[in-house]
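Project outcomes to date are best conveyed with an example. Our students and postdoctoral researchers have been running inverse folding experiments weekly, and each run begins with a structure described purely in tokens. The record below, which covers 139 residues, was selected by the lab manager from last quarter's runs and is presented without edits.
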């Protein structure tokens, strides 16, 4: 094995240790403060980045209970539902995010977390309506 490959694997080990540290750190804080929003948000993000989609989904569901009118929380929930192949529910939560004020439509159309949902014909219809509404708003 070449030195370059060894260095690369050492680097990925350090990254994995850091991510594991992040998860353990946030989970430890939640043991004392289970509804600490400023901990739940980054923990959900770390779970998702690490590929722990079911854990990220549980965090996002909890955040919707704690922040029921936050469009970004519902957007993130839609992403988690999409990543766990719950596509119909993902679309429902995505629509709710928009109704609550989420308006980053160009990001939505490219977000890899929503790739599964974008395949739904219902999503295509919904997104085309959003584009028409946005165009009328800017006229």
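After processing, the design step wrote out the following sequence:
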């Amino acid at each position: 094995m070449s030195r370059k490959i060894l260095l690369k694997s050492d680097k990925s080990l350090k990254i994995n240790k850091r991510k594991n540290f992040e998860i353990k750190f946030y989970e430890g804080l939640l043991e004392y403060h289970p509804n600490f929003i400023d901990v739940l948000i980054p923990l959900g993000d770390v779970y998702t980045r690490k590929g722990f989609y079911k854990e990220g989904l549980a965090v996002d569901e909890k955040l919707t209970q704690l922040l029921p009118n936050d469009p970004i929380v519902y957007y993130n929930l839609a992403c988690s539902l999409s990543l766990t192949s719950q596509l119909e529910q993902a679309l429902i939560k995505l629509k709710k995010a928009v109704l609550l004020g989420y308006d980053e439509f160009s990001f939505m159309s490219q977000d890899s977390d929503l790739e599964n949902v974008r395949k739904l014909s219902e999503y295509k219809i919904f997104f085309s309506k959003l584009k028409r509404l946005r165009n009328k708003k800017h006229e």
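Residues 69-139 form one domain. The CA atoms of residues 23 and 132 lie 41 Å apart. The training component of this project remains on track.
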